[in-house]
Amino acid sequence: MSSNDGAVELNPTVDFIAGTVAGVASLVVGFPFDTVKVRFQSPAIAGKYHSTFHAIATIIREERFVGLYKGITSPLATVALMNGLVFASYRFLLKLQLPTAETVPTITQIALAGAGCGIVSSIVTTPTELIKIRQQSMLTPTKARQVALKIFRENGVRGLYRGMPVTALRDCGYGAYFAAYEATCRYFATSPVGGSSKYDGSNILAQVETEMTTLSWPALLVAGGVAGVVGWLATFPLDVVKTRVQGSQAIPIQIPALEVAGAHSGGSVIPLSPSTPLLQSPAMVMRDSNPYRTTWSTIVYSYPNEGPGVFFRGLSPTLIRAIPVNMVTFATFEAVVHALS
């Protein structure tokens, strides 16, 4: 997509299609490592595996090869929507910070726009990740539709958005990802980024396409690898917390109402009536005893019981997949752009 003067002419439709296809390809390539990551982060089954490749071998042996792709349906179904939402919100948030479309954004502005688009994308990410994690944590075959319907029947739409706060915080990692990618590309660039009058700093897909025509493949792979590592390291502890929150369910228990009243009155028992707050009956109340019910409860329960290392469980397979995923992403993106141009 080049004009005679060497500048890249952009087609938003081609960019969107190429980004979506590249997203699907990278998801397929990296998903087995994502499954291993979730297994390591899930406390109920984490002890079953000793290392990344032991986990892969065990899953294949016990659940066949398809076990590595358990839960891929929901992210595959939303990859186009995610692609559009992330890049549209990124473009909007970056434009808010730039005086003109030709202004070269700073790394800080890129990081802020990336973090903001991560928060926006959590609208789609939360239910998608919830269904995916529930499937990946199950050792028996299941379907995304069955899991989604079960969650909806038990808790409604609210149930599908379990863990949304920590998902939004985790997805702020887009800021570190975009900033690290752009900083690495600028480091390898032979001429200043944005030197062309046709530079559109608000369009990340356009920038990727431009950089593919100006940077060598090794430089692009290094940039993608650095971005993947930095993006995950910045928010990985939150990803562990997210997996535990979304992978668990409410555990209701009945507690004597007098104990609840005593706890809310400084330890002294107060008279109760059926209209007293927190009561479902004069005798008993229901309480969620799941230690992973919220972001904060998960942190304060996991740290004392498992130490600081718990917040980095599953990091190895996550970093290992960075190289093949980025190779496939860039190769697919460029192939589709050229095929449609």
From TrEMBL:
It is a multi-pass membrane protein. InterPro entries: MCP, MCP_dom_sf, MCP_transmembrane, Mitochondrial_Carrier. The keyword Transmembrane helix applies. SUPFAM superfamilies: Mitochondrial carrier. Solcar repeats lie at residues 10-96, 105-187, 215-339. The chain crosses the membrane at residues 215-234. Pfam families: Mito_carr (PF00153). Keywords: Membrane, Mitochondrion, Repeat, Transmembrane, Transmembrane helix, Transport. One of its GO terms (molecular function) is transmembrane transporter activity. One of its GO terms (cellular component) is mitochondrial membrane. Belongs to the mitochondrial carrier (TC 2.A.29) family. This is Mitochondrial carrier. It comes from Hebeloma cylindrosporum.
